[in-house]
Amino acid sequence: MLVHKKATRLTIGLTFVLLIIAIIVSMGLGSVQFSPVEIIKALFGHGGEVSDTILWDIRIPRVMLAAVIGINLALSGAMLQAVMNNPLADPGLTGVSSGASVAVLFILLVVPQFSSFIPFAAIIGGSLSALMVYALAWKKRGITPIRVILAGVAVNSVFGGIIGLLSLLYSDKLPGALQWLNGSLSGKGMGDLRVMLPYSVIGWIVALFCIRQANILRLGEQVALNLGESLNRVRILLSFVAVYLAAISVSTVGMIGFVGLVVPHMARMLVGSDYKHLIPMSIGLGALVLLVADTIGRTFFAPLDIPAGIVMAVVGGPYFLYLMRKGDV
To answer: Residue 52, exposed/middle/buried by CB under 10 A (0-12, 13-18, 19+)?
Structure first.
């Protein structure tokens, strides 16, 4: 047991080391490339004028924002999977992202003067869509994976139609929202990071405090009853945390799918299902996966900047099929 704990901690530690390396590499890649030494000098205020301008105004905010959003989506997926006891639960597949997207797009296209309310609108939209999925998937014996899939498809279809309708009705305003619709981090700056980070940190802290509750749901209803826990209260708490983290991410960069599905599965394969290890592993992997996806999108196809949402869709789709073939879902 002691060896297993040491191996788990080592795996989590190595993931964060890889994340730090990926951050430095990503900051150095682009039309103007910088060595790790130049990046470290700039980070500590000893860089040149060119490196300071490019790194601090463009690359550092984008890299950090990718990491923050990756963490949010990974934690959201892990929480939803605990709540639904369903390996397919994910902010995108369960309709949370599409509900939040409708709310944000409505403000962007119809009432842009209320753009300061976008984070709150995203949370409300995500919550409503999650409630719809719960209501449609619920049976007397509880929630089953296949009903969650079907309910998620139905809810995503409805909200996808609303997004299409808004795009047609306000096509003159659509170009400004296209990058957001594709889940792009292009053009995001330090201002976006400053807005996003406080909301995210609150969600991370609450998620860490929910480790015990997530483990209780994982162990089953009888264990929860023996411990005197209210299953409904635990599910509501974890669902709100999941919706909150997904919604604030959608409000900033739009829909980025499959992070919440792929990362928790990868984390389970590496450290097991105990949320005491799964949550920190999801934090490191979530940041790493989305950062790599965004870096690939902006460097491999230069001068084109492929949105991270598209890269994740291309990678996440085959991974989802792999999980089904393997029998994990």
So the answer is: middle
Q: Which residues pair with 142 in a beta bridge?
A: 139
What backbone phi and psi angles, to 5 degrees, belong to 122? -65, -40
Fold of 2-326: ABC transporter involved in vitamin B12 uptake, BtuC (1.10.3470)
Residue from 15, 34, 28 nearest 298 by CA: 28
The residue among 103, 254, 120, 118 whose CA lies nearest residue 186 is: 254
Tell me the two tokens of residue 303.
């001068």
* Chain segment 229-249, per-residue pLDDT in tens: 777 788 888 888 999 999 999
Dig out the tokens for 203 from the structure: 């969600």
Cβ count within 10 A of residue 1: 5
Determine how many CB atoms are found less than 10 A away from the CB of residue 119. Answer: 19
Give the domain ranges of the chain: 2-326
203 near 69, Cβ under 8 Å? no
pLDDT in tens, 293-318: 999 999 988 788 899 999 998 888 78
The count of other CB atoms within 10 Å of the CB of residue 129 is: 29
Dihedral (Cα; 289, 294, 296, 302), 10-degree rounding: 180
273 touches 218 (CB < 8 A): yes
